[in-house]
Amino acid sequence: MDSSVYYENEYGTVELTIYKTSNQFESSVNAIAKNDLVDDVIVLKNTKFELDAKVIIAESLVTVNMRNVYHFLNELKGHIDGDQIEMGGGNLFDMINYAKACQIFNTRLQLRPFVIIYCTSSEEVQLVYKRAISNNLAIRVRSGGHDHEGECSETDTILIDLSRMNKVEVDQKSGIATIGPGNRFERLTTLLAEQKVMIPHGTCATVGIAGFTFGGGWGPWTRSKGMCCERLVGATIILGDGSVKELSEDGDMQARELLWALKGGGGFSYGIVTELRLQTFELPRELIRFEIEWNKYELDPDTKQLKIVSENTLPTIQFLKEWEAVINANRNVESNVNHLSSNEKLIGTNLKISAIPSTENFDANTVIHNCIMYGYWEGNEKDLSKFIEKNFKNPQTYDFRITDIAGKKTNKAYGLNMMSNWDRESFHTVKLLLKGGVQEKSSKSRPISPDLENPAPHKITSCLVDAQGLGSKGHEALIRSLTSPLILDGNREMGLFTYITLGAISGVFYQDATKELESAFPYKDKQYTIQYQTWWNESLERKEEGLDNIVYDRINRALDWMQVCRDFNIPNTSGAFISFKDSSIPTEIYFDTSYERLKEIKKKYSMDKLNHFRTRKTII
Prior knowledge:
Uridine Diphospho-n-acetylenolpyruvylglucosamine Reductase, domain 2, Uridine Diphospho-n-acetylenolpyruvylglucosamine Reductase, domain 3, 8-stranded antiparallel beta sheet, 5-stranded antiparallel beta sheet, globular
């Protein structure tokens, strides 16, 4: 028996064909949808004499989503101004503005939300969130846009942008700063320094305070003041049911648990934070930002490539061990914060080591890599010089540069002068060297290279060094990972940079292993972070070359190097740091001993039963 049935509405037609015989295996029901309808056939019963099936007919998801977006926007009329909404349009001007608004810091990822809403208050965030969810539209939340895996945005979502929520107020009595999530460090640190206070900020001027804090918040103050999350004493958050909750250390159980989760337990999992309250500390009288560089790149006159050609070189393992000795000098020793030792005046530091091509007869004890140590020093230049002479031998092998100063004794704009991206390489500097230029030893008046703060395509991954340190096998493995056949000669000259940055955790703040700190950040006992990085197309010149850029012949191998490093067996390392996000690392590894408690907090207190607050690396 054959039979045909037609279904039709304004969006399209569906033709149903039914074929039934006494042989159940030859019987079938087929549906063919046309235009904007979709279908699904579910056979419920198929016997010799009976064929029972369920046919589902629906509009295509594209049609449904566009209708939902239309209703969503209509519901915002009278509540959200037109200049707060960005969704492109039919003319070139609108298309350009929309493309700019979509851009996040990692330009490797190109995401296109349905609509971007620039909220200016908690009430607007609450309204936009509730209207989006009621119209069955997924959301994302963006403050600084620096999520390395782009989880601050997504295609086909409603993007709630908080960048216009940039309030900064400091209570002079308590020292607590009330900070909007849209603040970026260049502006925020300048405003705080004007009031002679500071927070443990990061190293990149364009990073936003919200995601930085919720991810832990490593930076140039970590050794002295801890991660930024340790300073979070309160917040305002919009929960999954659309309600607003004030979080504080003396609030109810829900408030205390959610606050604990925000202190290093990742962003977005528990709600949308519309205000942070951070305990500031007094800005030191004198503060110095400095660099020490070993094994400098120089222009080889024969090959016209950048090589480490100087006779005054130092094996990588030697300066790595010297740096480790500095950050661990007083580990597990009681410290007097009013009388800091010389090592404790080094309030924060990281070490950047460039990767190189494989070498014949690899020897971890003799191989040479370019390296730059970055640091913040509390004190004067004379004491800093003595500290460096004492702790880093062979002064003929390195260049020491003071890059800027700050503190109570200067009125210079903190954010413009003290913010320097310790996690980036500068193609501007490379081009200067290729033209025969020389980087000066004293850099006090030298501006930050213009490409260090700009968005660029990149990939990163991470792990951390355990409390006992790498040991000889760990040192060898780390250095071997930086000496790879996947790194090609000439990468640097093309603006393709591959390297690691080691961020010190060990210091006066965390050195007492018995100290009880109420935060979800799980790696308080680690010595330092290891962040593998690959960046390219940082300069305007390279960006303008577009698809004709020769660097694309090499990127796959550089990204393969990243994958190899992610899985590299380095003894005495573990975990991963959520602010250095790599979506291929399981979520539990990022949160370690805090993971189970974070899952319970998410389920019990976020009021988000359907998990609307979700991305690839959120909790649950």
